[in-house]
TrEMBL record:
UniProt-recorded name of the protein: Dynein heavy chain linker domain-containing protein
Statement: the UniProt record of this protein carries the keyword Coiled coil: yes
Domain Dynein heavy chain linker: 810-949
GO molecular function: dynein intermediate chain binding; dynein light intermediate chain binding
GO biological process, one term: microtubule-based movement
Pfam family, one: DHC_N2
Taxonomic path: Eukaryota, Metazoa, Ecdysozoa, Arthropoda, Hexapoda
Amino acid sequence: MHRRTTGNSAAPEVIHLRWQISLPDDKPKTSKELLQQSTNKLANTISRAPKSEKYQFISNFTLQRVSDANELESILKDNGIYNSSLCLPTGEQVDLNSNENFLPLEMFDDWEYDTFNPETLADWKNMEALAILPPYTDWQHVLVVNCEPATNYWEVMKKGQSTTYRIPRLHLYFPFEDPYKFASRNVAALRARETAENTIRFRFLCKHISTDESFAPGRLLQQSILRRTSVEIYDIFKRLYESYHIALAIGSHLNLDSSTAIKQTNISCLDAMKYTRAVRNNSTSIELLLDCFRRKTLLCDRNVFHALRFVNQECEIVRKLPLFIVANERPIPLEEYEKQNLAQTSKTIKYLQNTWIERTTMHMHRLLSRIGDGNFNIAVSKWKIYRVMKLKRLIEQVLYRMQDALRDLLLDSTAAYVNYLVNDCSEILSLEDDYSWDGNLIDSPFEPKRPAVFYLTLEMGQEAPYYSTDPDSFPEILPRIMDDILTECHYIHTIEPSLMQYLIFAGNLFLSSVGLLDPIIVKLRETLLEYYQKSLLPLRAYATRYAAYKELFFTNVKEFVEQIKNADKSSSEIKEDIALQIRMRENLEHTVPLCIVIGPYWINVEPLREALIRKRLELTAALLKMLTEKLRVKTADVIGCYNTINERMCEKPVSIEHIYDIRAYMEDVPELVARLEDRMRSILYEYEILEGFLYNLPDADFQQKWNALAYPRLVLKQMVSVKEFHESEVDRFRKQQFADEAAFTASIEDINAYISKFTTLYDVSKVSEMSVEVRRLWKTLRELIDQGHIMNRRQELFEMAPISLNNLFELRNNFKAYRELWTVAADYLKLEETWIGNPLASVDLEGVRRGLQQTHDSLKDLLPLFRDQPQLLAVLEHFVTVVEAFRPNLDIMELLKCPYLEAIHWGQLAKEIGVKGKLSVDVGFDVFLEHGFRDHLDTVRRVVVKAEQLRLEQEARWAEEERIRQIEEDYRRARAERRQKRTEI
């Protein structure tokens, strides 16, 4: 980290370069970070020239000391600087056993050589300067474009070009600066890089070289040490011995002074040398011994003692901080426990990262500032002085105390955390992977010695029972909570940067915490994981036992009732089903617990238990309701039968026949009532089933039941009232019968007179009106005859003499022939109209022939009946003549409906007969009659015969063409088959 300060031209300040070395931490570093850290540490030991030898004051920035590139290159060569030495590393992996450079030169640039501050002085912009650009063969003239003050990189471009290059300050020379100072700057950077690279090589080889115990102590030395000490002490001595001699060997290999790399002299060694010299000289000067003691000890001032005391108090507070939640009044879900832990740990981490550092720094600053200048001057601003001060040793002592407190906090907290979660259930740790829960569901063989920690709810899923929290998340989340806190504790800053405010420190100086791979942490993590992974076995096995209740849990009550209904079970079978549901519910109450403890888990089974019991209750209630509805339907059916009997008896008679029907029905009523009483007795037995289950009938069903039991008495009582009512109705209908008889006689006389008058009509032009009237009169005759039969049956019921119907029968026989004449004539005329008026294509010739024949036969059968009536006989003969006159039309219609007639034939017919319109089979036959086709029968027959002959010839040609086509097709198929069989192709 670099910091540069600049002043005015009269009293410029010197630029200071300080290297900050961070303490080791537990975070893994990449090879690049290790390389950079080693370089920084080495650079810290590089000796710098005095400020007066580096800094140069420039009063005139327009003065050109060197403007020629060759002259600058010559000066650099005189100082041992060649263009190839300024090249950047290629980026390829470099063998550390070689002499190749692998660190960028600009990393070792000494900014104290800078001649000006580019942020305050803008004279360098667009200035012409000398620079060495890739491929680093010679120095060239460039224009300076931009500057990055934070990194000391400059952006330049060649003259006459637009391409820009980003180069470090060592590759750029301004004409106004001293070329020898510039050369010294490059020389200092080259020497610093060489020292850093050699140090990295030395440390790398010391750490990674394989010696095969070549530098181990000799056997005699080994035996001598083992006689005086233990094996553990000898192992420590052996490692130190080997390290020392390896360093000597590698230092001589690299031509380094390895003793300097192995041991560096400090002030404590000098004090020890003075004390030893005083003892050897047998000096009795207490002042000298006291001076040596004061120089050696840290507790030479009461403020230091009090500062350490306050530091110790803060560390004791830290040791007692609650880092995890290790106590709860009741079990809680894992999610809630994780949230509480997060809140607790966030609060504690905030205290460690802020409050602890601030309070410790405050105590140290308050007490050490009282001492002032000297070994404990916290206002020191130079690293060289700070390194040899007691203050550094004091801060290191505070660092160790804080790290010790932090370690105690983490070890105690994690031990308490694991002890709280692992609540001493040894039965869990002895389980095998194939464990199954064989005991009952109430008693748990895994009761822990301490209360359960976590709350779970057992629920039922579509596939299988499950818990409200996935059990697999416990072995995953609980160790992660512990590891996250341990990781967070790696980022607690030291007090050094906040206390020593006049020195610059790196931003990653943290207290050394407990590592994730610490043996104690690893053991605790393994204990936690083993316990919770084993605890999943009984947890899953217990949930598996509830899979037997899945079918009950997801049973649809409506579908269950529908299945029972479709099975058409009897009431006794439904009774057994209800009793089974009650027994199963009671079994659930005695076999399924409200809750159970399995190791660290308190499992709430009550919701699932209540759901299962509630489902049994719903099924029981549904069966009782179904049985109630079934009985309701049966009872309603019985009541409906009683109501039917009552309604049938209480019908208001509309005639004497109706009264006799009701009386006949009432004779069977006592027997019907007895049957219904028997049915109701069997239904009462089914009602007793509901009473046996203490089921309260709805008010409507209860009322319906007792209404059904009371109905027989009501029906028998109603019979007496109905019989009394019928006696009065018989007298009323007898009086009505006398009136109906008189009206019937008058109707017979009226229709006889009308028919006698109507039969004198003979107008053939009004055949339609005559047929309608004839049909109406015939219907009236039939109605009177039917009415006469009804009145005679009533006369019999009233025990009166029957009415004579002979006149009506005679009138019907005489009128029958007259009706046949006019109806047959009218029907024929309607048929003839349809034959003539409809298109010829839609006329059925067989229907026409059949209609003519039936009409002719019907009329011929009527001729003997009208021989004594000349007028009617004339009418009959007229219609026979009309029928006979239509017969010749059949031949014309048959010829014209020939299917072989085409448009050319119709045109020929129209031309020969003299028809101007277009003819076809879709034209009505009346058109052909209008044009006199009956008079040209021979012409029509000749055209039809010709059309048939042409059709036969055409069909013969088609047959011949088809035969030829088939022969050609057979020939082509045979030729294709022959080609496929040829082998010489």
